[in-house]
Amino acid sequence: MKKTVLILFVFFSTNLIYAQGFKIGGKLGANITGLNGVQFEEGFNFGYHAGGFAEIMFSKKFGITPEVLWSQTSLTPATSFDALRPDLASVTTIKLNYINIPVLLTFKPVKLISFQLGPQFGILRDKNQSFTGNASSAFKSGDLSMLGGIQLNFLSLRVYGRYAVGLTDINDIQNVATAEKWKSKTLQLGVGLTL
What we know:
The longest helix has 17 residues, at 2-18. It is elongated, with a radius of gyration of 19 Å. 14% of the residues lie in helices and 55% in strands. It contains 3 helices and 8 strands; from the N terminus they run αβββαββαβββ. The protein has a single domain (20-194), classed as Beta Barrel (Porin).
């Protein structure tokens, strides 16, 4: 882990010397989240995200945008969840808190618009308290996603919309009856402000 952090630090420090533009800022927005799997209700649930980002432009059109976001995901179990997991019969909403780390390739065809695409790794920090008490190992601690979207740039203000599709199965329950793949899907809408 220390080697990875050191390599990333050296990479970003070296590239900052040659960068055309460097900005940092904060962002806040809404998560509209769903999870594939028969144990969860169809549709999407609302949450939020907040954190910081850096814009590192290597030219007028291309750059990268690394971010660190605190992100809350809310899920609603389906009625079939009670039969498969009696210990979760009283749970009506599951809230999961992630630290998400997207690293996005940014393409700016014009100053006003940016297109972004890249991977996002989510680290599960804690689980809903009642859910934790009943099923301490219901979700894996990491969720790898692919994220893409569009951002509008108004001087220091950023307005964005993007969609993240989970690539990893976050179900680590070993029960045969519940051995289905759970993959996340999230629409993020928000605003950011550069310093």
